[in-house]
Amino acid sequence: MKPPLVRAWSVSVAVYGGFDPGVGDDTFGERDWNANVTILSGLQAGADSYHVFYHPYSLNLGVRAVLDGFTVAGGDATGAATHEGAGGAIFSANASNPSIINCTIVENASDGNAGGIGGFDATVYVVSCVLWGNTPSQVVTGMLCDPFTVAYSDVQGGFTGTANIDADPRCLSTHPPITIACRRARRVLTMARTRRCPPG
After folding, report:
1. 16 phi, psi to nearest 5 deg
2. Structural domain includes residue 3
3. Which tens digits make up the pLDDT trace of 139-172?
4. Residues of the domain holding 85
5. Phi, psi angles (nearest 5°) of residue 169
6. ∠ Cα 37 26 188 (to 5°)
């Protein structure tokens, strides 16, 4: 049985990746989430956890709960219960409405709806992110979710929202609103896969 990894944070706490004190990048002015890739992994003890981030029914996160500048990978939401069947990377429940910014969400899975971001009676705000290579899809639909807000992001298969695109991030040369996120995703996916980019 997979360990039910639970990582949650407080209602109004913002968590930032992209620091590397080892090279002196330890202030906000020096933060660089492209060069200093910060990975939150669902892998533990050789097994994928249900969710990398799970926001349970009692947490009620608001939009000031921010995850900014991380790569989220390795979640595997396999199971019969609602919260186990979606959102291998991130699952929010019962009016938890966190903000996910400048993140790469890649190589997560579920046996239900969306290996990337899932939810039940919740809204998640996703801005300047890359969601790619999650199975069976990137962002949950249905499951009593309020409409998720996704903007300025690269979503495999597409997703309705301001300035979203659907382009293999390893092959994307330039698209100003999401160039930073796509560079990070291109690096992660290049290491994870050998599939060639489509022609053109």
Report:
1. -120, 135
2. no
3. 876 555 556 789 889 899 999 988 898 888 765 5
4. 14-192
5. -65, -20
6. 5
